[in-house]
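User: Need the bound-state model for nicotinamide-adenine-dinucleotide:
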Amino acid sequence: MVETISHFVGGQHVAGTSGRFGDVFNPATGEVASKVAYASRAEIDAVVRNAVAAHEVWSNTPSPKRAAVIFRMRELMVANKDRLAQELCKEHGKTLADAAGEIQRGIDVVEFAAGAPHLMKGEFNHNIGGGIDLYSIREPVGVIGGITPFNFPVMIPLWMGAMAIACGNAYINKPSERDPSAPMMLAELWKEAGLPDGVWNVVHGDKEAVDALLEHPDVPAISFVGSTPVGEYIYQHGCAHNKRVQAFCGAKNHMVIMPDADMDQAADALIGAGYGSAGERCMAISVAVPVGEETSKALVDRLVPKVQALRIGPYNDPEADINPLITRQAKERVESLIQRGVDEGASLLVDGRGATLQGYENGFFVGATLIDQVHTNMEIYKTEIFGPVLSVMAPCGYEDAVQMINDHEYGNGVAIFTRDGDTARAFSNSVDVGMIGVNVPIPVPMAFHNFGGAKRSKFGDTQMHGPESIRFFTKMKTISSRWPSGIKEGAQLAFPTNN
Ligand code: NAD
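Assistant: Bound-state model below.
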């Protein structure tokens, strides 16, 4: 009998009652490691009711007291880094070194959230007329639904959840059903940090659970991270139910390599950004765009031996570079896209299909793959592959590179490698992309800056973490205040002005 993962509601583990479960795999062996309960509409309603009650208390808790809980969570996360990494990796499959980076980024957000009282200060104008003071305050929104993807099961629930509760909201995380254990451990750590029961909840499930959150009248806001088709649905369906919604979605991130770039640096950057976490990152570089024939040759000559040297392996093998993909379906999809590229005329320089490892023959591995001479009309260029596959475009000019980036439906991240400041500046001004790296391949902003893409990589107006998150997780009230001693005139029927 495999273990069954329950929900976390009102500060306790609560067994699922819907009778529906999903399989959670060990991606390195392909075996079912556990089962996770899928919540029904009735179970979602129960967790929302619990969170509404918890929100009453938490939203009225002084913000420095809330910050103290968040600071304790930061300390607990630091102390439990290794345990969290094990919990994360056994289901996701990423290497322990990669998980350590993800967890640190999560800690960074918690640390930033502890400073929320400063960012929630509001605005005040003294004496704007006739003894009147005018001020704006930021209040929590209520119960926030947070729907998160499989690829960062610690960092992304914290991106939104830490900021949401720091602002005085209650949070219901519906994590990916593929790797539900690390989000459960986060909930346990919040409880240990002293967060009142019901402020941070975890419910598992599929579309039924998500739809119940999207349609629930007592959930005024939804924060989503995941693929574009699902994000678009969540944005439209949530807005149709009068919620504020932000949805951070899929990507196809280009890296332009100018002829003056340091080619060794550029090749190393592509290896890290293209193949780290087996390409299962929304900020992975999946397209290299060499400017000019010579750049293309110099780059590809360096890339081929480096890609061939990358080793597949399970998360606890310190020598492993490439982890297994999350599911068998993901492996099959990536392999079929590689074949599609070959069929469409691209040049397959390193083929990672069929990669096997003794003792892990049924794992969901795809080896590092390099495809050259890719063109914009090919499916492997248009689609987010989300695997260890780097496409090198047929060489083009700088203007063509910018055009290609702007024509792509996604606009999450982009990078340029060059020694020329003018080019880098012009590039940053020209591309319609949310996050730009100049000689930085994965320009994921730190927690105190805002994160977010452009075009179909994001739906909604606000960004993730950074000062913008305060806008999403609070609503503003503006108060005009005059004390009786300041009232000089009698009744006035004309519209009030300052004159
Ligand atoms: P996904 O869209 O399949 O799932 C995300 C969440 O939505 C999960 O909790 C899932 O259970 C739920 N979901 C799935 N199908 C649904 C449906 N039909 N109706 C309602 N809910 C549904 O994404 P994933 O495979 O878990 O994650 C990978 C994707 O996430 C990639 O596209 C990646 O680029 C994207 N991503 C984006 C960012 C970003 O910040 N832009 C960050 C990480 C991942």
